[in-house]
Amino acid sequence: MLFFDSKRFFPMTNWKFRASEVQVKLEELANYSEVKDALARPTLSKSHKKALEQIQIWMQEAGMAVVNDHAGNLIGSLKSKIENAPTFLMGSHVDTVSNAGIYDGNLGIIAAISAVELVGSSSSEIPYNIDVIAFSDEEGNRFPDTLTGSQAVAGTLDPNALTVSDSEGITRAEALTSFGCDPALACNSSYLDERPLGYLEIHIEQGPVLEREDLSVGIVTAINGARRFTISVGGNAGHAGTVPMSMRADALAASAEMLMAIESIAKSDPGIVATVGMLEVSPGARNVIPGHVKFSLDLRGENPVSIDTAQASIFSEINNIASPRQVKIEWSQDYKTPPTFCDPSLGELLEESIRESGVMPFELTSGAGHDAVAIAELCPVSMLFVRCEKGISHHPSEAVKLNDIAKALEVTHRFLTKFGQTCLRNG
Ligand code: GLV
Ligand code: MN
Ligand code: MN
C-alpha cells in the first residue's frame, strides 16, 4: 500500500512541520481536562490518567519503551544501542493549573518526544539513552506541597508528602492508589544507582523578556527560590447586625489588613514577589461576621537572604495586626525550594546550539518554579525558555508562535547531537 510518509517527505530540517505536529498534539492533549470548555488537570486526577495514556501512545510511536512509576510519572526511554550507556533526562509536567493554557509544562513533554523521535530515526547512533518524563505534580494546585513527581525521580521525596490531604480530605497516598500506583514505592527512585548525565527542560518563558528582546528562545541560568505557607486566622463568628464594631474579632477584616501588609513588604524589595492566591472564609454568609479565614502565601526571590528577610517581616507584621484585633494566628510552611542554578556546561552547549540555529544567545532567570528545581538534586540541569505572547501564562490565552516552537526543536536537536559528541570525547 502506498501512503504519504510525512517524515520522509519533509526532511528532518523542516522544523516548522515538526512544530506543527507538536502544536496539534498540544491541542489534543488540552482535551484531557476535569472541566468542559477549559483546561484544568490536577495531579492524579482522571484527566491526568487519560493524558498519560495518550502521551504513552506518542512516546511508543516515537520509538520509546514506556513505564509508569509509583509517583504518577510516566517515563519513556529511547535506548542507545551502546551497552550500559548512561542516561540523559528530558521532560516537564503534565499537570496544569485551573483554567490553564496548553503550553505550560506540556510543551516540554511533547517537544522532547519530537526531539527523541528525530534522534531515534537518525542513522547515527546516540551514545546515551534518553528518558523523557511527564512529571506528575508541578503546579501544586491539589495538595499544599508541589514538585513531588520530580522529587520522586530525584530520590528526595519525603514520605510525609504521602499523608497530606487535598480539599476533599483525600491523602496523596489514597490518590496515588486510585491512580494505580503503590504509595509504598513512591519514594523509590530508579535513578540513584546510576545518576543521569543531565537534564534538559523546554518550557515557555511565562514572562515578557524574550518578547522584549525579540528572541525565540533563551537560556535559563537560575530559578528563583520559592516558599509556600498556609496561614489560618481565627476570630469570632457572630451576628452581622447585633455585634458592635468595637466588640468584633473579624477574621476577614484582619486578613485583609495582613494581605495589604504582605503586598507592601514585597513591593519594598524588587527582588521579592509575594502572592496570596487562595482565601477561604467561613462560615461565608452575608449576615455572619467571618469567624475563620485560611489563606495561602507564595513567596519567591533570587536571593535566600532577601526571602528570609521578607518572610520575617511578613510574619512579624501578621502578628502585629493580629494582636489588637484579637485574632489567633496559626501557620504552616508547605513547601520550600532554594534558588537553583542551571549547569554552566550544559548552558554552553545550549548557547552554541542557539547560535548555530541563527538566534542570538540570551540568558535569563526564571521567576516560575519548574521540575528542574527538584531534578537539580539528582544531576546537572538546563532549561531552554521559549517566547510566549505578551508573557501570559497560567491563562487560556497563553500562546506560542509556531516559528518559536520550530526554533526550540532545532536548538534541542543540535544540543542533543553536541551532547553525544561530548559523551564520546569524554569516553
Ligand atoms: C508553577 O508554575 C509555579 O511557578 O508556581
Ligand atoms: Mn510549568
Ligand atoms: Mn505553571
Strand content: 15-25%
Named once each, the bound ligands are: glyoxylic acid, manganese (II) ion
Low-confidence stretches: 1-11
Q: Using the alpha-carbon principal axes, give the shape.
A: elongated
Helix content: 25-40%
Mean pLDDT metric:
95
With helices defined by DSSP (H or I, 4 residues minimum), what is the helix count? 12
What pattern of helices and strands is seen along the backbone?
A: HHHEEEHEHHEHEEEHEEEEHEEHEHEH
> How many whole angstroms does the radius of gyration measure?
23 Å
How many beta-strand segments? 16
Q: Mind describing the biggest β-sheet?
A: 9 strands, mixed
* Estimated structural class: alpha+beta
What is the CA–CA distance across the termini? 45 Å
How does this structure look, described?
- With about 425 residues, the protein is an alpha+beta fold.
- About 35% of the residues lie in helices and about 20% in strands.
- It is built from twelve helices and 16 strands.
- It has helices at about 5-10, 15-30, 45-60, 105-120, 150-155, 170-180, 210-215, 250-265, 305-325, 345-355, 370-375, 400-425; strands at about 65-70, 75-80, 85-95, 130-135, 200-205, 215-225, 225-235, 240, 270-275, 280, 290, 290-300, 330-335, 340, 365, 380-385.
- The strands form three sheets. Strands 1, 2, 3, 4, 5, 6, 14, 15 and 16 form a nine-stranded mixed sheet that branches.
- Helix 2 (about 15-30) crosses helix 4 and helix 2 (about 15-30) packs across helix 12.
- The two termini are about 45 Å apart.
- Mean pLDDT is about 95; it is low at about 1-10.
- The structure holds glyoxylic acid and manganese (II) ion (2 copies).
- One manganese (II) ion (MN) binds near residues 105 and 203.
